[in-house]
Every structure is written in structure tokens, then in C-alpha cells.
Amino acid sequence: MTTGTLRSPRLDLLPLRVEHAPEMAAVLADPALHSFIGGSPASPEALRLRYERLVAGSPDPSVSWCNWVLGLRENARLVGTVQATVTGATAEIAWVVGTPWQGRGYALEAARALVAHLRNQPTLHTVIAHIHPDHHASEAVARAAGLTPTDKTRTDERRWHLPLTRPPENHQP
After folding, report:
1. For residue range 79-92, what is the model confidence (pLDDT) as tens digits?
2. How far apart are CA 77 and CA 61, in angstroms?
3. What is the pTM of this model?
4. Which domains are seen in the chain, by residue range?
5. Which residue in 29, 69, 91, 123 is deepest, having the highest Cβ count within 10 Å?
6. What is the Cβ-side half-sphere exposure of residue 2, based on CA atoms within 13 angstroms?
């Protein structure tokens, strides 16, 4: 699966590049941001190394790592990320928006753009996300992007699910 630029009303979802690391280290610097996603803020150098691995792609040829940074069009500033890990017919998605830009609908806008992109991938049938049950903002984003919660959990996160249904092809006799 390719990761070209995607657009939403206010954002450009730009394919991840190693050069994004210094600005993204600042975007992701708030320790509180990591309370649900785990880990801690990474230095620009540590994030650069991580981005090198992500950009190189999965070592498993059956898995695609698709990563975008969220560029706020009005001021050409990065504000977060979205990602899709594609395995077979399933895409597992995630999003994160830096603390200063939260509450403005950017995560929702980016998640909707990502889900719309995934709907156009004919080999995909399912979108999933794993969200901590206390992370109400991410649950709202998932719900607005069309995902619904399931009873399945992974570690301490609930699985959300969206079947990608497509209209049947119009066959002419």
C-alpha cells in the first residue's frame, strides 16, 4: 500500500520522512501525551532513528507500515501523526495530536481522511484501532470515523472495528 499525500479540509497528511523528526519531537514532547499511548517523549535523535526504521518499512513483506505527519495547512506546522499497519485485509490505525493542538478536531479530521483512503484500497476489508477505555477523546475520534467498540481487548485497550463494505460492482449482461 502506498502512502501518498492525503488531504482533509485543514490538514495535509504528509508521508513520514526522517527529516520530520526534529519538529515532531517538539510536537510530541508533552509527557502527558504518553499517558495512554505509553512510552515517554523522544529526543529528536531518538525519533530520527525511529523514523528511519519506519520509513524503511516492515521487515515482514506481508506487513505494510503507512505513516503520515499532520501538516496544518494554514501555517505549514506539523501537529501530529496518523498511521495504518496493514496486514492482509486488515488495517490497524492510530492517531496522535500534540497537546497544544488538541480539542480542535484535527485528530478526527485526520482519522476520517485515513479511513476514506483505506476504503479505496480494494484488498482491505477491515479497519481496527485499539484504544484505552479511559481515553474518551480517542474513543470519540474512533466513533466519528465510523469505528465501533467490540468486546475484545488487547492488554489494557479495547478493540474498535469498522468493516469496509463496498457497493457491488455493476455487471452488465
Report:
1. 999 999 999 999 99
2. 33
3. 0.92
4. 6-163 (3.40.630.30)
5. 91
6. 4
